[in-house]
Predict the 3D structure of the following.
Amino acid sequence: MAALEPIRLILGDDEFLAERAAADYVRAVRASLPEGEPAPAVNRISGNDLNTGAFAELTSPTLFGGAVVGVIESGQDVDKDLAAAVLAYAEQPAPGIYLAVCHNGGNKGKGLSEGLKKLDVEVVRVPKIKRQPDRVAFVRGELRDAGASPRSASAEIADTIIQAVGSDLRELASACAQLVADTDGKITQESVAKYYSGRAEVSGFTVADATIAGDTAEALGALRWAVQVGVDPVPIADALAMAVRNLSRVAAERGGAAQLAGQLGMAPWQVEKARKQARNWTADALAEAMRVCARLNGEVKGGADDRGWALEHAILQITRLSAAGKGSRV
Amino acid sequence: MTAPGVFDELVGQDEARRILAEAARGTGMTHAWLFTGPPGSGRSTAAVAFAAALQCPEGGCGACHTCRTVLGGTHPDVTRVIPEGLSLGVDQVRGLILEAGRVPNAGRWQVLIMEDADRLTEAAANALLKAVEEPPARTVFLLCAPSTNPAEISVTIRSRCRVMGLRQPPAGAIADLLVTRDGLDRREAELYAAAAQGHVGRARRLATDPQARAKRHDVLQIPRRLTGLGACFTAAVELIEAAEAEAAGTYTDQSAAEKEALETALGKGGTGKGASKAARGSASALKELEKRQKTRDTRAQRDSLDRALVDLAAFYRDALAAGFGARVNPIHPDMAETTRAAAARLSAESLLRRIDAILECRKAIEANVRPRIAVEAMMTRLWQS
Ligand SMILES: [Zn+2]
């Protein structure tokens, strides 16, 4: 087995990939140890928090022997004096001690990253992924690593996953792991569609919650995101109607949450939540909001040319109604 | 001589009874008929009765095995298609036409009854037109539609059919039927005939089914109960659940019989070579059947809900009439006190707004808005208008 470099510079502005690279380094250290050795001790510290004492601790052997891995996160935040200490150490690393330094690659704290490069340490680059082909490659890699069959880790499947999930790498990675686990590694377009319809519900509720709370910006933002990842407008409209209904029914009733939950066929937590949300609302405003929901339901079912606009319009009306409730309650 | 037994159900439609009975005996017979008339006028009743008359050796005695199997929906040479989705697709129609082209097994004719032919898709209508233009020798097509309006039935299909126009039977004729056939006393018969608003089947259901009466009673209590926002949502849930409950029973027996028939036809329980392949095929056929049955149940729910909404609208209409002191017969004579009280409390304009709200709700549901949401929104308007 090739000897592992005692210093690794993780260079780039993608936080998720940087985290990932640091974890890989720890795993590599563990794998390089001879059988029977205790697992390495791992210490992490953020560049901001690094001081002389902490750095000494990071690079000292443990009392019981065995390897030590130190990870400095956000190395761009390490102050100048300490950067010099890190570089000095890097010239002569101690045996059995492994150090990973993450740096976002920007100008701040450039002395540290440039200095390490000059010492010819191992560099792993983790720039943000901006191009679609790179994203597809990333997803295929995730699928393969998670144990997907070669056919499942195809560019087509990767493309579909990205369409459904969006471009956030952390979410993509967890989607890949979930999909492989759910399908025993044999992913089809259908299983991706199923995964993503599950998310549709979640995002419908996100839009509805923000709308009921009267938070126009948040609601429209969530809506835009949902539309972007291809969520159908119908479940979003349904979620809105359900939120207004729950609010109306809870607002109109007295009694304990548990009792009411049984009576209204809702979960107790839904009752509690609706109670809190109902404070901003009058009965008249809720009645009007329900009528907006009914009109919207017709529009998203094919009555309207632009279903996205129908949703936006309804959200604007309902958030305004909620505000009206606030005003009239002193 | 009066028309034979199978036409007894055609209340207040003497002209239609005469024409159909004669046609069954061979006078004025043709391969394609179009039954039109408003809801409840008995389009499908007329078509089924005519089918029985065509098959029956006595021209529709109403008592023989043939008549009973046709009326009961189990005659092998009478196929009855009830619209089960929002519209009939071309594949479905082609299959039916193919079946209708076969030589009759037992009867004199191969009869295809297509209820609500206005729900045909354009492609399906074209397929049907071809068949109607060149009908097989022993095949009869009986189509039903609300009217001959070109928006509802294509002009070409209409031109190939003999049109049998039915009218809404007067309440008096329906009441007569309830007295003579179902043995109701006059007062009750008149009440249900009025409440059914010209719909014979509805009147008989009210007369014979205590659950249907209980549902009507609950619906007519709604206006009084809408005292606040919470009550609107409670009333909506109850109305939807009542419609579901009523619809749940509508096709239970028929669905079970269809399933059994299909399983028998597919040779359920076969073993040996080829059995597993057959089992796979029958699984998909069963799935298909269950899917169609489910759409039919949904349709039944919508119909039940629609009847409730019509009852509700009639309540406000009665109140409006009472408010004006109009001398018209109330639709809900047994609710006279409540409607008068509503008339005293609510202005004519606000009653009209309530009627509008109900009509809009019916339209919304027809346009595929989730029924519960449409009804909830409607209730808020009935409460506040
Ligand atoms: Zn007979």
Summary: Residues 275-324 of chain B form the longest helix (50 residues). Chain B has three domains: 5-165, 170-208, 235-265+288-384. The interface with chain A takes residues 228-234, 364, 367-370, 373-374, 376-378, 380-381, 383-384 of chain B (CB under 8 Å). Residues 41 and 168 of chain B are 5 Å apart (CA to CA).
